TrEMBL record:
It comes from Aulographum hederae CBS 113979. Keywords: Membrane, Transmembrane, Transmembrane helix. The chain crosses the membrane at residues 20-44, 89-112, 124-145, 175-199, 211-232. InterPro entries: Elsinochrome_Biosynth-Asso (IPR053018). The keyword Iron-sulfur does not apply. The keyword Transmembrane applies. This is Uncharacterized protein. It comes from the Eukaryota.
Length: 311
């Protein structure tokens, strides 16, 4: 842990960190989130209208969703591992990116709800990853809340929020506290609702609830993305003085995340050309795969697994 003596004298400037707040990193998160939200909206709309959704669209959305939840967990792990050296400015951007990740993969879950319900492995794996993401986000939120209330000098490491001395708090502390707590509570509610949807059978109001939840998640993702643009050096005006403009520079490390977005598209082209066979999920959505009342695939650790119906 950080020695309290390192929190007594704040340096005049903080070093930039392109690996966290670089232009390519931010754009890769936000572009992926935008594409995933558009695909989710399209699939949910088609299901509400009882139309057939494209297999390619579902495959793309599943890839973008997996990418969002894994990169969200990874970047939060990096932030917590570097809390002895990372300044609150970078830590806050990580927290906003995790909010984008949470909203995006939760919205994708709403669109691919039937797919996850039919496979207990995918269902419980997704819940486990969402729980890890939630725990990391709540821990990061506690650090942000401490930083807001104590207002530690912006060039000191985020770990200094647990050490004295701290500077005088700002006048807008109550608003910042309310906003921080609201984000944390919102993420907990999103996780609870996602688990509820995954274990809920077919009910009349489910489609309306999915649509309303999707609108809320989209608003969260857009708000977090706007905030990232506002406070980042790459696209906005950071509140902390940085020693260089490294977060604006384009390098291999900044271009790589953007080029990785092409991988799901290449896979989709292969599916479109018939090189990779993926059965259409829509036919399965309209009839149960298993001899159960709700058509769910049962978890064999708690319920006996039911064999597939004969085709």
């Amino acid at each position: 842990m950080l020695d309290s003596s390192n929190c007594t004298t704040a340096p005049p400037q903080a070093a930039s960190d392109a690996g966290v707040a670089g232009a390519g990193v931010l754009l890769s998160f936000i572009v992926t989130a935008g594409l995933a939200l558009l695909l989710s909206a399209w699939i949910i709309t088609l299901e509400i209208r009882r139309s057939s959704a494209s297999t390619i669209a579902r495959k793309l959305l599943n890839s973008f969703s997996d990418q969002q939840i894994l990169t969200g967990i990874l970047i939060q792990s990096v932030g917590l591992a570097k809390m002895d050296t990372m300044v609150p400015y970078h830590f806050f951007i990580i927290w906003m990116l995790s909010s984008i990740s949470t909203a995006t993969h939760s919205a994708a879950l709403l669109a691919l709800l039937n797919d996850f319900k039919r496979d207990w492995v995918l269902r419980w794996l997704r819940q486990a990853l969402m729980l890890v993401n939630l725990v990391l986000s709540c821990v990061s939120g506690i650090f942000i809340l401490q930083q807001v209330t104590k207002k530690v000098a912006p060039t000191l490491p985020i770990a200094c929020v647990w050490h004295e001395p701290a500077t005088e708090p700002r006048d807008d502390v109550p608003i910042s506290i309310v906003g921080t707590v609201a984000v944390m509570v919102g993420q907990i509610l999103v996780f609870a609702m996602a688990v509820f949807y995954l274990h809920t059978g077919t009910v009349k109001w489910l489609q309306s609830a999915r649509a309303a939840s999707f609108v809320i998640l989209t608003a969260i993702a857009v708000g977090a993305a706007v905030r990232c643009f506002q406070v980042s050096q790459a696209f906005g005006s950071p509140e902390v003085p940085l020693s260089d403009a490294g977060e604006k520079d384009w390098s291999f490390g900044q271009l790589l995340p953007l080029f990785l977005l092409l991988l799901p598209l290449i896979n989709s082209i292969e599916i479109f050309r018939g090189e990779v066979k993926v059965p259409s999920p829509m036919e399965d959505d309209q009839k149960p795969l298993f001899e159960t009342e709700d058509g769910f695939d049962r978890n064999p650790f708690w319920n006996s697994q039911i064999p597939l119906k004969s085709r």
